[in-house]
């Protein structure tokens, strides 16, 4: 072929599946190939007279930027309407394609010249392949084993019913068209597409459902767990069907018999078996070579990426879609840390927001919706809607049979009707194989963002995971009797916070008269996997080895944390019961698991570690995800919440068994429900023989800022009632101290303050005197004295006094527990039955102490 400065066309044989690799003799058709002169790849620059848009590389970079910008912009503007990423990505591709901006010929010649399409299509396919590989890495195949009869029933019916409904509809439309219209070749092809449209739109993909659940923040909800398991079952059946049908179509188009067909399928099965029994053990060996808590070697990551490229080649080598084998490889890679999470972290952002938009850019260029006849729209949409109705019915019927709430059943049925990138890829492949024409393809691609957009908005509007843990009675320490069991849920997201938590639990003074149940929830961010996990660990009493924990020769990170609490339980046999759980979920939705467990166990207090903590290297670490999680728990918790700020020992390692000689506890009391909750909690601690309790009451000066009031009588009554409860509680405590009961361990002081600076001075003077300081969270609505500090707070979730304490905690090696009392939101004061037995609780505590 002679060299040319322009682009010349010549006829050339090309494979049906778009590649020139070996396809076991499948038919090759005639197409066109573009010849590009070697000196027309890279531009020398405008100063040398070269136009960038006449060269392949600059045009590709412009396409890359355009695709990334449009898809991100669409998602940004649609996100407030609860739309998922796939909706913005497809709409961005359609806007950039031939149906919108592509109507301008100048734009089309600049952005999509024929010379650039080969490079654009190749890299877009590669980006989509890597994306589906990453989704496979996140998947936990083990959910198939954990799926119950409900999930299997939903999964099977969502595969069968859509086809039972859509296939008859497609054949009826096809027969009606032949009987009532003048059928030309083009119309005949369009109506012969309908059965294949029915088959394609009946499929369900776990990849799609998982991405939508992630975008809607429903992954670790009960709805998300059922949707994930059911979609994996249905998706597995759908992919088996697609592989068989697509491979058979290739064989028929080539004019070959069943020998070539079975060669393709056998080769595919052999590749999958080799991946499971060779690559999986290799990857498991890599994980075993990585010390716990350490990052995996870069060389291992390179091996994984090399295996990905080899699998992409093998998929095309045996005549299959380039997407299938990489998806299987993703399933073979162990999900979660250290390997799966590292692979995802390395390339997820680049692939999802830079490479994947290229795929939708190519799709948008192939979508032509303008000029389509109304009859075409009607026929294709009717089949699509019938398949969607089949999915809906296949989900909601078993849900109602298993007595799921009706609203949850509707939400689950809608979720399993969602469409996404895997569906678009299947439509593209079907068009290449001649199952559907460009008209059907365009309409099917247009329905993806429409259906998914409607579903996303509807599900977000009608489904609220927090409904599971809404309480209709208060669950607080104030509302439980002294001689009753205290149930506490403690959350642990790093081993450094364990000693401080156990110190608080030990100070809570569990006895036979006042036993304590502790529910330990280990929290792990969901990285490198798509399926959240919630595990209840066996209690040693359920085994034959007694209640003391067993220590393995190489305990895992989680086991070491659990063993610490088991030791605490063993040291308090008969008074403390510990049950451990592990939760792996995204920080954005982790509060659902926390609040659900708190509601199920009827806990009175939920202790969360502060988002700032000392790392094992001695540095002050920070977790933005944990901070957002704490805020969500504070807003939705079904019980009282305490945020524990561990001042630690300036980052030095500490033993779990610290000295209990005079464990000094202080309560900074200004007033209000949260302060009362903190104070009553310390009354339980005060019964411990090695605890010294100091109550520091902040009294607002009479000439200080006036108290916040309103003109309504209800507020005045509520404010007066709160003040009366505060006064009764404090007066009773003062009476006890003056009576001499435990006077060596109890003290009461008052500090007069006029503004927030006075409060800071009081806190700074007391910080070095105590090991643990408790205070309430909410003070801002009770006095104007905090108005100046409210604008300067670094940690608003701790309240004003908590913010001041936390700012000094890490300097003075003191732990701080900021308490928020559970309230029944939306109810008036008259509807809430407040427990006013606080004073009698104090007398009960110290009278029992005197008897001892």
TrEMBL record:
Cited InterPro entries: Cation/H_exchanger_TM, CHX17_2nd, CHX17_C, CPA2_transporter, Na+/solute_symporter_sf
Key words, A-Z: Ion transport, Membrane, Potassium, Potassium transport, Transmembrane, Transmembrane helix, Transport
Residues annotated as domain Cation/H+ exchanger transmembrane: 73-461
Annotated GO CC locations: endomembrane system; membrane
Protein name, as recorded: Cation/H+ exchanger domain-containing protein
Similarity comment: family membership: Belongs to the monovalent cation:proton antiporter 2 (CPA2) transporter (TC 2.A.37) family. CHX (TC 2.A.37.4) subfamily.
Sections of the chain in a coiled coil: none
Membrane topology field: Multi-pass membrane protein
Boundaries of every Cation/H(+) antiporter central domain copy: 518-651
Location in the cell: Membrane
Organism: Protea cynaroides
Lineage of origin: Eukaryota, Viridiplantae, Streptophyta, Embryophyta, Tracheophyta
Residues of the Cation/H(+) antiporter C-terminal domain: 665-823
Keyword Nucleotide-binding on entry: no
């Amino acid at each position: 072929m002679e060299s040319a400065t322009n682009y010349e066309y010549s006829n050339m044989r090309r494979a049906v599946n778009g590649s020139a690799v070996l396809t076991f003799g499948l038919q090759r058709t005639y197409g066109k190939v573009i010849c590009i002169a070697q000196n027309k790849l890279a531009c020398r620059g405008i100063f040398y007279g070269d136009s960038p848009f006449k060269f392949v590389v600059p045009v590709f970079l412009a396409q890359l930027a355009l695709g990334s910008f449009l898809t991100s912009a669409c998602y940004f503007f649609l996100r407030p309407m609860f739309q998922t990423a796939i909706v913005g990505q497809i709409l961005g591709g359609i806007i950039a394609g031939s149906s919108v901006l592509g109507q301008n010929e100048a734009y089309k010649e600049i952005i999509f010249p024929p010379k650039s399409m080969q490079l654009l299509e190749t890299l877009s396919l590669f980006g989509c392949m890597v994306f589906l590989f990453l989704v496979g890495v996140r998947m936990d195949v083990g959910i198939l084993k954990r799926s119950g009869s409900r999930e299997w029933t939903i999964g099977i019916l969502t595969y069968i019913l859509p086809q039972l409904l859509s296939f008859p509809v497609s054949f009826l439309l096809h027969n009606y068209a032949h009987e009532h219209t003048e059928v030309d070749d083009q119309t005949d092809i369009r109506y012969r597409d309908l059965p294949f449209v029915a088959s394609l739109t009946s499929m369900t993909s776990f990849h799609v459902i998982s991405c939508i659940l992630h975008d809607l923040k429903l992954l670790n909800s009960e709805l998300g767990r059922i949707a994930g398991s059911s979609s994996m079952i249905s998706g597995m059946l759908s992919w088996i069907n697609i592989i068989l049908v697509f491979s058979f179509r290739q064989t028929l188009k080539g004019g070959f018999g069943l020998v070539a067909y079975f060669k393709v399928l056998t080769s595919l099965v052999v590749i999958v078996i080799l991946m499971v029994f060779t690559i999986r053990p290799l990857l498991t060996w890599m994980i075993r070579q990585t010390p716990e808590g350490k990052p995996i070697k870069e060389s291992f990551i390179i091996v994984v990426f090399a295996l990905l490229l080899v699998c992409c080649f093998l998929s095309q080598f045996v005549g299959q879609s380039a997407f299938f084998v990489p998806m299987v490889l993703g399933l073979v890679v162990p999900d979660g840390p250290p390997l799966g999470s590292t692979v995802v972290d390395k390339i997820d952002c680049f692939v999802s927001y830079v490479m994947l938009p290229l795929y939708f850019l190519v799709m948008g260029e192939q979508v032509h919706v303008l000029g389509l006849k109304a009859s075409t729209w009607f026929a294709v949409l009717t089949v699509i809607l019938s398949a969607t109705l089949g999915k809906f019915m296949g989900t909601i019927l078993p849900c109602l049979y298993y007595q799921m709430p009706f609203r949850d059943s509707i939400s689950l049925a809608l979720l399993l009707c969602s469409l996404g990138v895997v569906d678009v890829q299947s439509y593209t492949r079907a068009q290449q194989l001649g199952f559907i024409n460009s008209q059907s393809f365009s309409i099917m691609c247009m329905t993806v963002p429409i259906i998914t957009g409607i579903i996303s908005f509807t599900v977000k509007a009608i489904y609220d995971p927090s409904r599971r843990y809404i309480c209709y009675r208060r669950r607080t320490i104030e509302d439980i009797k002294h001689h009753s069991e205290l149930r506490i849920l403690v959350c642990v997201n790093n081993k450094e916070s364990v000693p401080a938590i156990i110190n608080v639990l030990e100070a809570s003074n569990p006895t036979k008269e006042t036993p304590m149940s502790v529910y330990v929830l280990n929290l792990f961010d969901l990285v490198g996997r798509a399926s959240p996990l919630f595990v209840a660990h066996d209690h040693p009493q359920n085994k034959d080895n007694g209640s003391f924990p067993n220590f393995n020769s190489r305990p895992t990170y989680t086991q070491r944390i659990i063993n610490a609490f088991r030791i605490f339980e063993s040291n308090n046999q008969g008074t403390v019961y510990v049950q451990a759980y592990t939760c792996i979920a995204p920080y954005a939705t982790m509060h659902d698991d926390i609040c659900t467990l708190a509601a199920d166990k009827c806990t009175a207090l939920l202790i969360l570690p502060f988002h700032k903590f000392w790392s094992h290297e001695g540095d002050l670490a920070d977790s933005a995800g944990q901070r957002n999680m704490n805020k969500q728990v504070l807003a939705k918790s079904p019980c009282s919440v305490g945020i524990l700020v561990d001042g630690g020992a300036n980052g030095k390692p500490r033993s779990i068994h610290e000295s209990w000689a005079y464990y000094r506890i202080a309560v900074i009391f200004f007033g209000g429900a949260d302060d009362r909750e903190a104070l009553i909690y310390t009354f339980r601690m005060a019964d411990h023989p090695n605890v010294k309790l100091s109550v520091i009451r902040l009294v607002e000066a009479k000439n200080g800022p006036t108290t916040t009031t309103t003109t309504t009588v209800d507020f005045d009554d509520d404010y007066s009632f709160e003040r009366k409860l505060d006064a009764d509680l404090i007066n009773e405590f003062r009476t006890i101290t003056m009576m001499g009961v435990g006077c060596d361990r109890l003290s009461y002081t008052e500090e007069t303050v006029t503004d927030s600076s006075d409060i800071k001075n009081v806190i700074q003077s007391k910080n070095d005197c105590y090991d643990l300081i408790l205070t309430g969270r909410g003070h801002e609505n009770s006095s104007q004295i905090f108005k100046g500090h409210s604008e300067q707070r670094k940690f608003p979730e701790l309240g004003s006094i908590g913010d001041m304490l936390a700012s000094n905690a890490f300097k003075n090696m003191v732990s701080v527990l900021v308490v928020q009392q559970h309230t029944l939101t939306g109810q008036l004061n008259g509807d809430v039955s407040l427990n006013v037995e606080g004073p009698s609780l104090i007398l009960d505590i110290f009278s029992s102490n005197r008897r001892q």
